[in-house]
Amino acid sequence: MLEDARARELLPFLSPGTRPDVRSQATDCVLGLTGSVEGRSFLAQNVTYLQALLTLTRECCGALVKDCLRAFVNLSADETVHRALVHEVDLLPPLLRNLCDPECDFSDQICSILSNLSRSADTCKEVLRAIQDQGMGLAKIVEVFCTEGYNKKVTLHYLGPLLSNLTQLPEARQFILDKDRCVVQRLLPYTQYEGSCVRRGGVVGTLRNCCFDYASHEWLLGPEVDILPFLLLPLAGPEELSEEEMEGLPEDLQYLPEDKQREQDPDIRRMLLEAINLLVATKNGREVVREKNAYVILRELHRWEEEPQVGATCLKLIELLISDEPEAGMENLLEVQIPEDVEKKLRQQEEEEQRQLEEERQQKEEGQQKGEGQEGKTPAGLES
Question: Distance (Å, rounded) from C-alpha 113 to C-alpha 84?
Fold first, then answer.
């Protein structure tokens, strides 16, 4: 941690007029501070440093700008710094202006910052408001995301998590679900996007969040959108099914190749299941999902699934599909009023289930590590 006297000496070197090599060293020092809780807390309380970094992103170029933005990525990952970044530094407007510039070299870093800032509900509202105030609106964000090669210098994959975070908010879901805009239809193919787990997961999270709006379920499951095959296909494997089972499936799920792979990311598999689980909360949704024979895909997934939490989510969905219909007046499970004492018991039961699942996961990981040690294998490296 910098002492106050040294901090005061550092600040003048974070100005555009400073000699480049000295300015670079000062920036690197601030970047180092963002790697610790204490350092981030110091910077949040001394926003002059952050304002200086933002000035450098406007008046300098190249590696120095990248280091400044890396510092903001680290800071934005800490929710305790969000208020300082959004309100005192006023970080959002310049980021959004550059995000939609097809020639910007640093749009990926900007996407990461915006994705981090939009995780918490309070700051998410600020991000959405800034998007609207800048005159671009969500329409521009979706256009940039869905336009292949919009910016040939970067990938823009983290726009996916940004959209997912924004759909925490009812107004964002309302835009995505607008029947005249066809936004959902543009996003659906990305549930199978092989080029990026981040982009794919962001879209699945967006669709999952939109499924909370049960008034749109009939439209989502109907022919205008037909969301169900896009949610089921990533969960389907190469298993052989009987002719009767096969014919009951949507066409896109019939006669899949022998090398068909399921979604590899367990978090994405879980979100896909959660989306379907939300769709079957209404009577119409349950009827459609049963009619499309989704059960057989879920049955095979449950047999294959090794992640305890994903397997538990899948099993609950299967049980809901094969159980009897609720009594009259309780068909919409999202509207059922649960007595407080019953809700408390259910919550305790769920917490216990989660604890047991976590223990199973840890035991599984420990077993894998022991097995790898016996065979002399080295752990897989993290992706950069």
Answer: 14
